[in-house]
Structure formats: structure tokens, C-alpha cells
Amino acid sequence: MKAAWYEKQGAARDVLTVGEMDEPRPLAGEVRIRVAASGVNPGDVKKRQNAFGVGMPYPRVIPHSDGAGIVDAVGEGVSQEWIGRHVWCYGAQSYRPFGTAAEYTVVPLEQVVPLPETVPVEQGASLGIPGITAHRAVRAAGPLEGRTVLVQGGAGAVGACAVQLAHRAGARVIATCRSESDKEIASRAGAHEVLLTDEGLVERIHGLAPDGVHHIVEVAFAANINVDAAVLAQGGSIATYATNASTPEIPFWQLVFINARIFFVGSDDIPGEAKIEATRAINQALEAGWPGLGIAERVPLDEIAQAHEFVEHPTKSGRVIVTI
Fold first, then answer.
1. Is residue 276 in a domain?
2. pLDDT, tens digit, for every residue of 10-62?
3. Are residues 137 and 109 in the same domain?
4. What is the extent of the structural domain holding 42?
5. Which long-range contacts does 96-99 make (Cβ < 8 Å, 24+ apart)?
6. Tens digits of residue pLDDT in 244-292
């Protein structure tokens, strides 16, 4: 099969190779997917760069955890009825060496989700890590019916998913974003109010939620923690999945006095049951008419380095898809 891989970490054009490999075979409890589209996440890029400092976990890595296509083979214990189904998958390269940047990928059955008939395959390849992360971040503090949720970075992939899922959970959703064009993305995802992250943000949030917001989904913990602490209601919570600085300072006493709770969300290590719950919620949103995430770039597998570079230095909002 045709695949992209790296055997050392570094710059995309220095380490990514496209060539031929043997086709994988599904083991017991696994399915094989003929991949049509492979989603590129920031985490995929960071692994290739060694941004987390953990080195090469395997001698050869086919990148990308998210993808979509058609099941064409199943392992022992998996119903033959799966063969021929259109599906999306997640975690293909989470604690596994071979992801979705290839003509075929093999994953455990529990990481395979039917793709609704009306949903394009490229959208399916966009959903895994952003959707599961968003669902966990939104639901970390419990039910949201009638509560106010602030989504920082509501135009990003996780942010837009969080806006939609919080909206569907019955919350009043306030989203922030950095530009006028991004405001439309957050609004389309279901935000009731969208604010730009410029001067006076705390006052504008207080104007919308005088008693404070009950829960915050946070994309840039270090940069935003002072704003978050200033607008959080008594007993409120923050679920953060990313930060702009690895060792942030926090306003400790301010958070203590409001009895704040902070949840840290890492998509790879979310409990399996929560991941399955998230995939159901995502499919329900799609089936109810949510258009999903915008696609910024479609790049053929031969040009995968270009796709990684776009994720590193985006020029427009939206997901990057490698087409197989």
C-alpha cells in the first residue's frame, strides 16, 4: 500500500517519506479501513516535531489519528456486517505506530464509528480528536442545562465542536474569537453570543453574565487564566485542553475564593467509555443538521509535508485533510 511515514523526528520536509509498505491485516477485535481522508491535528504535528520531548515511540510512525473511509476487512470476533460500511475512526496513532496517512489503517472496533449517510468523508476525518476533546471538556463538570458556558477560541476545531455540544446540552454559550471572520464560525456552531478577544473582554462577559459563567472550555490556559478567574461564577469550573505556555502562573487566591475547579483534558487518555459517548453525541449533532467543521485545505498524500506545514502556520481557519 501507499503510505507516509517518518523514522526520525524533525521538520516535515526533512523526515516525512511517501512510499510503499505491506498492507496491514486486522487482528482479533480489529477492523481494516480503506482510508479516503486523513485528518491532520496539531498533536500529529507536535509528535513529528518531538514537541513533547518523548522521542520516537516506535521505529517507524505513520502519522495521524483521525480518518474516514470504508471497512474492507475484519479480524476474528468482528461481524462481517461491518465490511463495506462508511466509517470514521479515532486514535489510530494513539499508542499505536500506524495511523491514517496511508491507503489502509487498522484499529480496534471500539474506535470505529459509522459515518452518517449525509456526512462527507472529509468531515468524518475531521471529527476524532477535536470532537472527543470538546465533548470531554464540555461535560467535565456535569450537566449544563440552563447554565452559562464560555468557550475560549470558539472558532477553532475543538472550540467549534465545544460550542455545538454545549448548545445541544442546553447551555447558554458565549464564545470568544480573534477576528470578525471567526465570529461567523462560532455563531454557525451554535454560540448565542460571540465576543472578540480585545480590550474590555472581562467587562463585556460580565455584561452578558452578571453572576459569572458556570463553566469555561479553555484553549490557551496560560494566556487566559486571569480573564477566566475574573468571570467565573462561585463554584465554577474550567476544562482546559491546551496552553500557550507549559508552566503557567495562576491567580491562586482568586481561584480559591470562588472555589473554582480545573479539569485538564488530554484526548488520548480520556476513558474509553467517555470516548464512545462523545462519538454518539457528535453523530447525533451531525444527523440533526450540524454541518461540522470547515475544511481549510485538501492535500494529496504525496504532499503531506505541505499539509503539516499548513497546520504549523495556518493562513485561514479550518481543518487540513490529506486525501488518499
1. no
2. 999 999 999 999 999 999 999 999 999 999 999 999 999 999 899 999 999 99
3. no
4. 2-126+294-323
5. 97/57, 97/58, 97/59, 97/60, 97/61, 97/62, 98/3, 98/24, 98/61, 98/62, 99/38, 99/44, 99/61, 99/62, 99/63, 99/64, 99/65, 99/67
6. 999 999 999 999 999 999 999 998 999 999 999 999 999 999 999 999 9
Pairing of strands 172-177, 30-40: unpaired
Q: Which residues of 282-294 are buried (b: 16+ CB within 10 A; e: fewer)?
A: bbebbeeebebbb
- Check whether residue 104 and residue 181 sit in a common domain: no
Q: How many domains does the chain have?
A: 2
Residue 61 pairs with which residues in a beta bridge? 6
> Are the C-beta atoms of residues 257 and 235 closer than 8 Å to each other?
no
Helix, strand or coil, per DSSP, at residue 128:
helix
pLDDT digits (tens, 9 = 90+) for 163-202: 999 999 999 999 999 999 899 999 999 999 999 998 899 9
- Say yes or no: 155 and 203 in one domain: yes
Distance CA(31)–CA(262), nearest Å, equals: 37
Bridge partners of 37, per DSSP, are: 68, 323
Task: Round to whole Å and give the CA distance between 81 and 191.
Answer: 39
What is d(CA 129, CA 142) in angstroms, rounded to the nearest whole number?
21
Look at residues 86, 110, 10, 16 and name the one whose alpha carbon lies nearest to residue 322.
Answer: 16
Q: Give domain status of residue 274, yes or no.
A: no
pLDDT band of residue 96 (cuts 50, 70, 90) is very high
Domain CATH code at residue 252: 3.90.180.10
Cα–Cα dist 93/24, whole Å? 14
Cα–Cα distances (Å) from 54 to 11, 41, 47, 51, in that order, read 16, 18, 8, 8
Spatial contact of 169 and 145, defined as CB atoms under 8 Å apart: yes
Residues in Cβ contact with 193 at an 8 Å cutoff, skipping those fewer than 6 apart? 173, 174, 175, 208
pLDDT at position 228 is 98
Dihedral sign, Cα of residue 7, residue 30, residue 37, residue 84: positive
